[in-house]
Amino acid sequence: MAERLGQVGKLLVGIWLAGVVVAMFLVVPQYEGLGDAGRIIIMHVPTAWVSVLAFAVSAIYSALYLWKRRPEHDDYAVAAAESGFLFTALATITGMIFSQVVWGVYWNWDPRQTSIFVLLLIYAALFALRSAIEDVDRRRQLSSVYSLFAFVTVPFLIFVAPRMAESTLHPNCAFIQGSQCDGITLEVGKIGLLGDRKVQLLGLEQQGDVVTAEVLVSEPGLRDEATLRPSFNLASGEMVARPEFPGLRYQLGLEWADPATGSALQHIEAPGTGLLENQRTLFTFLASIVGFTGLFIWMLNLRASLLGVQWALAQREGARP
Amino acid sequence: MNSLLDAGVAIYVAMAVALSVWVSLFIYLWRIDSQARELKRQLERERAKGTDEQSPAPPRATVTRVSAAEPERETVEK
């Protein structure tokens, strides 16, 4: 009975994720500034979240192994770590595709990219450690301890580091409350940072209700400079012109301006910000998280079961004269 | 080839590619899953069989009583 239920569950995961793929292309609307590239969020973020879940499960089973010394707990710990590594790699690859569309490069050592790369290295070291120790008990003990320590870094690398970074182009504001989402207020002549772009407010000019700012934008490393002119309507309180940063899909917005004091609030309008405000996108996104969690549970059980079978076969071979 | 990349068609092409990747992955997982289950069952059967073979046989003893008057042989098997 339990086996039959399991089979039905696996079939459901297959159909559910196929539905998510169809919805990603046909139900989720295009996002302004991103076009079809915004759809990748339906794969990118859930895979990253499921990888955190997988690493947490790996740490729990590692602790259980250290407590009860049952080999199947070690099998589950390894299976979860492997699944986590796979999902992290998927999140990285989908993020790189997004980065190519939005930033113009696959990789630019953005804080978020750097932290996920470090995470991949930490878990790659776990597998290297396991393959380097021949004694089975010692391998299980050491890798369990390592897995627990590795998991301590996960919340920091996934949640804390990107929030601490003041210079990131990752659209954190779409998902992470408390990120650097408030823009920057500058007085005329002052310099500040928006993402990893240096901005300098050169001047403010008022025509009727519309205030136009003249902003000098410098590329990272001060390679190139460009002058952008975002504007703001004082009467309606809305942004008017939102010019794009050179070579990027990011826009410079003027959220507030006071010509009397010569100060203005500038904001980087990152594509992806507010993406989940659309109901169709939100529901597809949640469905994707459910689907990937189901897939993870299936993969975890399958891999742990394979490791168990492998161990049983090795024991049988060893028992033979 | 270029017609596949037209704005109206490209999204369906991308969806078909993503769907076929997922369907292939699903079939692969399903097959490995059923093979693993079969292997596990086989191992359990073998283990059960091995346990049967290794279990000790019921005790057997042969008692021979020899009478001095009339040689008689009685065998009792327990």
Descriptive account of the structure:
The complex is a heterodimer of chains A (321) and B (78). Chain A has 321 residues and is α+β, with helices and mostly antiparallel strands. In chain A, 55% of the residues lie in helices and 16% in strands. Chain A has 2 domains: 2-165 and 280-319, Four Helix Bundle (Hemerythrin (Met), subunit A); 184-269, no CATH class. Chain A contains 6 helices and 9 strands. In chain A, strands 2, 3, 4, 5, 6 and 7 form a 6-stranded antiparallel sheet that branches. In chain A, a hairpin with a 6-residue loop joins β4 (210-218) and β5. Chain A is elongated and about 90 Å long. Chain A starts with a helix and ends with a helix. By secondary structure, chain B is mainly α. Chain B has a two-stranded antiparallel sheet. Chains A and B meet through α1 and α6 of A and α1 of B.
Describe the secondary structure blueprint for this structure:
The complex is a heterodimer of chains A (321) and B (78).
Chain A: H1 2-26, H2 41-68, H3 71-102, H4 111-132, H5 136-164, E1 184-187, E2 191-194, E3 197-207, E4 210-218, E5 225-228, E6 231-233, E7 238-239, E8 251-258, E9 263-269, H6 279-319
Antiparallel strand pairs in A: 1-9, 2-3, 3-4, 4-5, 4-6, 6-7, 8-9
Helix pairs in contact in A: 1-6, 2-3, 2-5, 2-6, 3-4, 3-6, 4-5
Chain B: H1 7-54, E1 62-65, E2 74-77
Antiparallel strand pairs in B: 1-2
Task: Summarize, please.
Chain A has 321 residues and is an alpha+beta fold.
Key features?
heterodimer, A: 321 residues, alpha+beta, six-stranded antiparallel beta sheet, three-stranded antiparallel beta sheet, 9 strands, B: mainly alpha
